[in-house]
Amino acid sequence: MTKKEQLYEGKAKKVFTTEDPSLLIVSYKDDATAFNGLKKGTIAGKGIINNRMSNALMRLLEKKGIPTHYVEELSDRDTLVKRVSIVPLEVIVRNIAAGSFAKHYGVEEGKLLACPTIEFSYKNDALSDPLINDCHILALQIATEKELNDIKTYAFRINEELKKFWASCGVTLVDFKLEFGKLADGTIVLADEISPDTCRLWDSATKEKLDKDRFRRDLGGVEDAYHEIMKRLEEHISEA
Ligand code: TMP
Fold it and tell me: What's phi and psi for 138, nearest 5 deg?
């Protein structure tokens, strides 16, 4: 399968059509942004790591019965995926208070939550991805009740699988963001990516941050953290 024309360029990926109208090629870049694009940079080799990590995790989730858009890794940066229409929601699952949750609710970053939480942001750069609740999602017809239920059920199941996998790597899954899409027949599948750009991943022993917060917060050692988390994944993915 080869790239035909560029359909879309996002902050971290490009999307291309292929000879098959039901399949697209996603190409991962090294570009990094934060705070809705206000902060810009590059993380050398990030595209390769995010492509390979996201694919490995989607293969793992497929094995556990979660439908995803993943089809085949074509190269270091390129992956063949099913064409979906993205549900314009960022689905955020949290196990430990951090980032905007810690700030909004005045909770110390690192506090273990009594149970996992879920929240949604409306994917809209012009509005800076505002938080949105279930009633708003239904009222604005962003998703149907059935779609929203599927999304929530999958999101919590994904959390359990990823938490278990990362624990086996000596890594704590603090929180993460998912996006879902609809296939032509309306089926909801996991789409976009799961990577250090979209998850908070802390070394379980030292609490060292092994994710994009190193870039967002100017902590240094960004590339080293991406390589370290990829190494941990590669050491443990075959047993998962
Ligand atoms: P937050 O605490 O800043 O709301 O982030 C929650 C999680 O979502 C964190 O793992 C980072 C991820 N995330 C994205 O993937 N994209 C985004 O645009 C934002 C704001 C967060």
Answer: -70, -45
At residue 140, what is the residue type?
A: L
Mutate to test the pocket of ligand 1, among 198, 200, 209, 210 (most ligand atoms within 8 A of CB): 198
Q: Indicate the pTM of the whole model.
A: 0.97
Q: How far apart are CA 216 and CA 66, in angstroms?
A: 30
Q: Which domains does the chain have, with CATH numbers?
A: 6-82 (3.30.200.20), 85-222 (3.30.470.20)
Whether residue 94 has its Cβ less than 6 Å from ligand 1: no
| Type of residue found at 219 | L
Q: Could you give the 3-state DSSP secondary structure of residue 116?
A: strand
Using one digit for the tens of pLDDT, what is the confidence trace for 98-123?
999 999 999 999 999 999 999 999 99
Strand stretches in the chain, DSSP E: 6-9, 13-17, 23-28, 31-34, 39-42, 70-73, 78-82, 85-86, 89-96, 112-122, 131-132, 171-182, 188-191, 199-203
